[in-house]
Structures are given as C-alpha cells and as structure tokens.
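Running co-folding for zinc ion.
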Amino acid sequence: MKTLKIFDTDAFVDSNEATVTDCKKSNKEGYEDYYEVITDSTIFAPEGGGQKCDEGFFDDVKVIDVQEINGEIVHFLESEIKADTKVLQKIDLNLRFRRMQNHNAEHLICGLIHAKFGFDNVGFHLSEVRNDDGSLESIEAIMDVDGPISAEDLKEIEMKANVAISENVPIYAILPSAEEAEKISYRSKLDISENLRLVIIDGYDVCACCAPCLDSSAQIQLVKIVDFFPHRGGMRLTLKAGIDAVKDYIALHDDNKGTMKILSCERGRCAEAAERMNVKLTEAHEDKVSLKRQITVMLEKELKNTIRMQESTYIVYFADSIDEIQARALINDNINEAEKVIIVMFEKTDDGYRFVAGKNENLTEISLKDLAAKMREKLNARGGGSEQMIQGSIAADRDTISEYFKNEP
Ligand SMILES: [Zn+2]
C-alpha cells in the first residue's frame, strides 16, 4: 500500500498519527547510521522540485532527511521504530509556510510571465540562510526563464503579482488522471502524465508541482523581485516573498534612513542626493590635484634656493604633507642643478617621516646604498634602493635628522 501523502491536498496539517509499515537499517551512501522508515500516511514532504524536505520528528526522534525513492516516501531517522508501531509525526509548519510563500510566489510570477511572453520556467530552487543554531534566517526563490524580459516589463509583472495577492484567489492542488490531464493546459518542466499533481492559482497559473501549497494568494503576502540579470539566453530572477519580503523591506528601510541622514535628503531622494554628492567629490578631487600641483611648483622654487644657499653636499628638505609622487618630482627636477645629494622628508607622522633621496650623477664618490645603511644605523631608518635613488622611513624628529646631515654622514 502506498503512503498517503497528506501534504498533497492539505499543507497545514502539522501533526499526524501514522503507523510504521517498514523499517530497516539504511544502506544508502552517507546514511549508514540511520534507519529508513516508511509509514501508512505522512505529513513530511520529501526533498524535490527545488526545495528541501520538511523538518520534524516521529515522537521525539528527529527526522534527518526525507526522500522519494522508487515512488516511496522514505524517512531517515536516528533510531529504529519497529513495523506496526504507531508514531506521532510533527513538522515545523512555520518553516514550511515560509517556503510555501516563496514557492507559490514563484508560481505566480512564472504564470504571469508565461501568459504575457510565453516563456517557460527552466530552473527553480529555494535558497535558505540559516542561523548558527540552525533556525531559519531567510529564504529567497531563484528562478530561470528561457527568454529576455526588460526591467520595465518585470516591474509590471511584479505589480500584477501583488494585485493577484490582494485579490485573495484560491490556491489548491489536484491529482488528475492521464485522460483528465490531457484536457488541462498547464506549465511543466518535465513531461509527466502519471501521478501528475497540478498546483492551481485560480485565474493565474496551473503548474505541475510536487511541493505543498498555500490555500490562497493572500497568504503569499507580498512578492518583490530583488534581482535579475540575463542568464543563458533568458533571465535569472531572485524573489523574496511573504515574511522574508517584509523582513527585507524593514532592513532596507533602516538602511535607507541611515543614508537619508548622511545625505541630508528626503525619503525617495537618496539616488539624486548621492549623485549630487558624487559631483561635489569629483570637483573636490580636481581642486586637490590642482592645489598639489601649485604646491609642488612653490616647493621646487624654495628647494632651488636652498640648494644655491647651502654649501653642504647633503641637502635635507622637509615638506611634511606632500606625497611620494610630489617628493620624487622635487628630486628629479633639481638633481641636475648642482652636485648634491637631495633627501626629501615627507608624509610626517608622530614617529617621523617617509623619505626619498637622489644624487647628482657626477657624485661618483658617494654611494647612496652606503648612505641607506648609515641611516638605518643612526636614524632608525628602514628601506633602501639603488645607487641613484633610495627610499624608506625614518623614526626620528626634524632636529635629530637635521643635526645628523649637518655633520655630513
Ligand atoms: Zn512548484
């Protein structure tokens, strides 16, 4: 006798007294520690059609998995329950309800797409995020259709689906015979005629499906297409429905409030305000580049004077707030002026400076590599480089550095 699938026609039964008809140690790979239990009736929907099996217990024994194997619904349990034993089956109806909200929302969206564009659903699964304790955080439905749809058209489909939800139309499943099925027009991913089960959203969709379904469209509550992109010649859509869509709306609202505060803008004006901010940032960046250029020109003049005035071979030049590009430009533009070693100290911090040093090519008797070694020893410097240019950082203050170079290293 085949197991009576109670969920086929009533998805809201969350406990059921059943009798075990068969129980054996499993030899399925990965399930060797468990028992395969078959019952005369069940409220456990097996894994299939893009969603996981129901979760719950037989009395207080946890159901690990439920699979349909050769037409039989097989429950995998942690311990043995002998045949003819009566058990109380219990499922997590809250989990099933959220799955049904997302799954039936997918039916509704696909039905509307099929009616308008004739495209078929060619892929579907429910993606679940769990918390550390195993409880459900969120569900979304991911579905593929076999044709392209514009953003505008998707918006229209989404609105129509939400109108259908507000109309509170019945949702139900039927199990037609092969002859009856021939007279019905329905969507189906597979070519099934035997054991066909159709889920009907009255006036909107008829689809072959094995999963438990809601009683009415209003139970879907809300559907939002949260993402879509071209995929294998068609589209991949991500939907959130029911409680999961509401949770998403609340989270987005909080996020939006934070953004409104930062941008000092009204609700619904964040994109506009962000665009204005972006323009301002670009202008500020251009100003900064121009100011840096002007500063470099001024510093170059000052450095030229310093080179002219100082007799020392080592010219130490402090330019606290310039960056590395500016420091290198200062050296490159002045190194041919005189036979000197120019050391620029830049990006001042509490600990010291970064530095870059270059030498005039006629100074063959001076080795910058040797200078780097001495600076490492005497000035807590780090870094090195070539004979023509060295760079790094110095952990010393301005006076210590100036004093060191005054005495010629
Ligand atoms: Zn389905």
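Result summary
Helices lie at 93-117, 151-166, 178-182, 242-263, 270-309, 324-334, 368-378, 398-406.
Residues 95-252 form a domain with the Threonyl-tRNA Synthetase; Chain A, domain 2 fold (CATH 3.30.980.10).
Job closed.
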